[in-house]
Amino acid sequence: MYIIDGIEPDLNPRRLVTEKIPEVKSGIKMYEQDSGFICGLLKKFRPRKILEVGVSHGGTTAVILQAMNALQMPFSMYSVEIKEFIGRKSNKTGRLGEKACKDLGCKDYHLFRGVYLPQVMDEIGGDIDFVVLDTTHVMPGEILDFLVVFPFLSPEAVVCLHDIRQNQGKHPNPENIATNVLFNAVVARKYVNRDATRTPDYPNIGAFVINSETLKYINNVFGALTQNWTFAGKGFQYYYDFIIQRYPSRSVWLFEEAVKMNSRSLNAFHIRLLRKLKSLLHA
User: Fold this and answer.
1) CA distances from 207 to 69, 198, 210 (A)
2) Is the pLDDT higher at 52 or at 88?
3) SS3 sequence, 175-192?
4) Among residues 151, 87, 88, 89, which one has the least CA distance to residue 117?
């Protein structure tokens, strides 16, 4: 079920945290209305345990911490980022979130950098009731992230997906479909706010609230993995091992078939990429 315009955006946390810590402004890699949507979700659902997957500079982390501080309730937050640095080694991923945590006096914030999500989920633990997924956007990307997170979610957890229309618009990237595919494949209550700054005004951010039907139809998500993949890096083995150990046999069968199907297409993709690079080098 889709609920349209059901979230009241909250723009104050972004404004307040950028006033307190001006450098955060350049580290927020989403539009103001997208940040407002996340903060509106936080205000509506009032989570106690938050997981952020995909951190970059940590600008969005800072906004979330500010929003939660404004709610004046106890919470814990965990951020996971596979990269240790952005560009120079002096520029650590998540540094703005760490700074905001210190400046705002947050007591229960944890940043995991330079690791893959399946490596740290047992340490993070269960009862997660709010998730922000904002990682690669290419297949299988956020679909695998969600399948790793799903066993650790509370019964009515909120999952927020950024860049759900990055494959559309004025400057589309046709490969960036993972969040859109996940959003439409999962069975849950779904929230989107119309975005008057876009034409069409379908937004670039959405969220869903899981329920018993999500688990009942989780194979819809596994089935979505049979679409063509763009990339599966060296960390894929962690995801593979996690899924075959945590899910029932029918889900594992779908997953392994998707892996087999895409092992061929990934090989073909890498061959085309190498040929393209060689042609550029010799141009």
Assistant:
1) 22, 18, 10
2) 52
3) CCCHHHHHHHHCCCEEEE
4) 151
Q: What's the Cα-to-Cα distance from 136 to each of 47, 80, 83, 231, rounded to whole Å?
A: 25, 13, 12, 9
Q: What is the mean pLDDT of residues 32-58?
A: 97
Q: Are 18 and 25 in contact (CB under 8 A)?
A: yes
pLDDT in tens, 144-165: 999 999 999 999 999 999 999 9
* Dihedral angle computed from the Cα positions of residues 232, 236, 242 and 245, in that order, rounded to the nearest 10 degrees: 80
All structural domains of the chain: 2-217 (3.40.50.150)
Residue 273 has pLDDT above 80, yes or no: no
* Alpha-carbon gap, residue 141 to 182, rounded angstroms: 10
Altogether, the residues listed in the chain come to a count of 283
Kindly provide the residue ranges of all beta strands, DSSP E only, lying in the chain, ordered along the sequence. 2-4, 49-53, 76-81, 109-113, 128-133, 153-162, 189-192, 205-209
Q: Are strands 128-133 and 49-53 parallel, antiparallel or unpaired?
A: parallel
What would the two tokens of residue 230 be?
């763009």
